[in-house]
Every structure is written in C-alpha cells, then in structure tokens.
Amino acid sequence: MNREVDHIEATRSCRDAKQAGQEPRDKLSATQEYQVDLPRIERAVREILLAVGEDPDREGLRETPARVARMYAELFRGLRLDPRRHLKKVFTEKYDEIVVVKDISFESVCEHHLMPFMGKAHIAYLPGGKVVGLSKLARVVEDVSRRPQVQERMTEVIADLLIEELDAKGVAVVVEAIHTCMTVRGIRKPGAICVTSALRGAFRTNPSTRAEVMTLIYNGRQ
Ligand SMILES: Nc1nc2c(ncn2[C@@H]2O[C@H](COP(=O)(O)OP(=O)(O)OP(=O)(O)O)[C@@H](O)[C@H]2O)c(=O)[nH]1
Ligand SMILES: [Zn+2]
Hints:
By secondary structure, the protein is α+β, with helices and mostly antiparallel strands. The protein folds into two domains: 3-80, GTP Cyclohydrolase I, Chain A, domain 1, CATH 1.10.286.10; 85-218, GTP cyclohydrolase I, C-terminal domain/NADPH-dependent 7-cyano-7-deazaguanine reductase, N-terminal domain (GTP Cyclohydrolase I, domain 2). 44% of the residues lie in helices and 22% in strands. The protein is built from nine helices and seven strands; from the N terminus they run ααααββββαβαβαβαα. The strands form two sheets. Strands 5-2-3-6-7 form a five-stranded mixed beta sheet, with helices on both faces. Strands 1-4 form a two-stranded antiparallel ribbon. Helix 3 packs across helix 4. Residues 1-33 have low confidence and may be disordered. The structure holds guanosine-5'-triphosphate (GTP) and zinc ion. Pfam families: GTP_cyclohydroI (PF01227).
C-alpha cells in the first residue's frame, strides 16, 4: 500500500466530508469513517450497479453508493489502526498460569471475494511477569479483524503481536469462522466452519502446556 497516496486521499476525504456538511458524529467515527476515499468508492459502486444492468438513479439505489462507501470505511478501518496501542499499558503481576479469553466475536472480510467471514477468536497467554487488561485482547481482535485478509493471516498476526508486546512465555490464538464466500455463493456449504490456530513460545514447544491451553479453550465444548 502506498502510504503517502493513502494519506493524501484520507485528508481529501476528510475535507470533502466536512465541505459536504457531514460533520463527524464523534471523535471515533471521524477516525473510523473518513479515512478512506469515499467519493472514489461511490463512483466504483455506481459502476458496478451499471455493469450488472441496474439503474443507479432509481429511488431505492440512489443512496446506495454512499452507503456502501461508508460501509467499507467501517469494515476496513483496521487498515489504519495499530493494534499494538492497546498493549502498551501492562500490570506487573506474580500470576504465572495461563490466562484465556474465549468466544471473542469478530467480523472480517475475505480478501478473495470481499465477502464477510465471522466467528469467534480464543486467546490465551502465559504471562512472563506482566498481565494486560482483558478487554485489550478483544480490542486487538477488533482492530486486526477489520481488514481484507485470509483467516490464517489474521490468526498469526494476532499471535505475533501479542507475544512481542506482552513479553509472554506463550501465546495461543484459535479462530473459528464461517466464510460467506463458501455459504452464499460458490460451493455453498452452510455450516462449514474453518478453524485456524497460531501457537507461540511454550504453547508450541511444550506438549503438556499445549494440551492444557487447548483444554482450557475447548473446555465444556468437546
Ligand atoms: N485459505 C483460505 N482460503 C480462503 C479464505 N477465505 C476464502 N478462501 C478461499 O479462497 C479461494 C479462492 O479460490 P479461487 O479458485 O481463486 O476463486 P473462486 O473460483 O471464486 O473459488 P470458489 O470459492 O471455489 O468458487 C476459495 O477456495 C475460498 O474458499 C481464507 O480465509 N483462507
Ligand atoms: Zn472468499
């Protein structure tokens, strides 16, 4: 991605949005919704509607390009966010057992078809003297999920940044998701679930620690 062009487009979009009288609803939405080139997406969506034989000027579709542009700004806002920012505040704690936060719901977009995939992420880490606020693990998932990607990469990106930022002895990330590109089109297999995992540190090298974390993650479900 060309960051400079990106920045110029982001700035232009912000300015266009303001000139059009679309004052951001709050500080968060200003960051999340206007850092993409909304007019450019609108033009592209109008082209798609024309290409499929629709009339983009009929009443029901008139606002659709603008809606879709705002939707992409929301779905891809993670492209401009640094998930590491949630992991800067850590607490010194003697606790040296596994910490698990499971069933963190997420929605992402598959980079092959630009269709949603969604499900749950389970995160575990073995502290190395420091713990992090539990909500921050879910915030990391939230940031990383809002990008076009494949599930494998999403799983690994989360694991890598956690092991680096937390100085943890081990990190395990398991992601379970359904891919709408497999359910509503193509092979059409509703109910198929894709499971990916990324293990780092002790969870990768020590079989009993690995077994323990998997039991904690799947406890009550297997
Ligand atoms: N590994 C991986 N594959 C994915 C993910 N999301 C979607 N896919 C797959 O990406 C593949 C793209 O295959 P292609 O043959 O290039 O595209 P296609 O002709 O639309 O494929 P079909 O879905 O089989 O119709 C498909 O098999 C999808 O199921 C993901 O997160 N990880
Ligand atoms: Zn897909």
